[in-house]
Write a structure and sequence with these properties.
This protein is α+β, with helices and mostly antiparallel strands and 90 residues long. It has helices at 28-31, 65-71; strands spanning 12-16, 21-25, 39-44, 53-58, 74-75, 86-87. The protein has one domain. Strands 1-2 form a two-stranded antiparallel sheet. Strand 3 and strand 4 form a beta hairpin. The two termini are 21 Å apart.
């Protein structure tokens, strides 16, 4: 069960094809509630006509976190932290 559910708000999504990365700008009021090293899982929103994507965020310790973390097989820049971020494609 999600701790937060928002529907129909605009995000800035940029796809960098050279590096196969996607960068997403999340509104600050939403970003403040996301724990560090959480995993974002995006999927095409096929069941809702006016939405492009459905996004779920799994925080460390949540039920599906470890299974999604295993799919994160690419290392990203650390962003100045001691632990590098990771990403992957399902």
């Amino acid at each position: 069960m999600p701790t937060l559910n928002r529907s129909g708000f605009g995000l800035n999504v940029v796809a960098y094809t050279r590096r196969s990365e996607i960068r997403i700008t999340v509104p600050q009021e939403l970003a403040r509630g996301i724990p560090a090293y959480s995993i974002l899982v995006m999927s095409k929103a096929v069941e809702v006509e006016h939405l492009d994507y459905h996004m779920d965020i799994y925080s460390p310790g949540s039920t599906k976190y470890d299974s999604y973390l295993a799919a994160c097989n690419q290392t990203l820049p650390s962003g100045g932290t001691t632990r590098a971020r990771r990403m992957g494609w399902l």
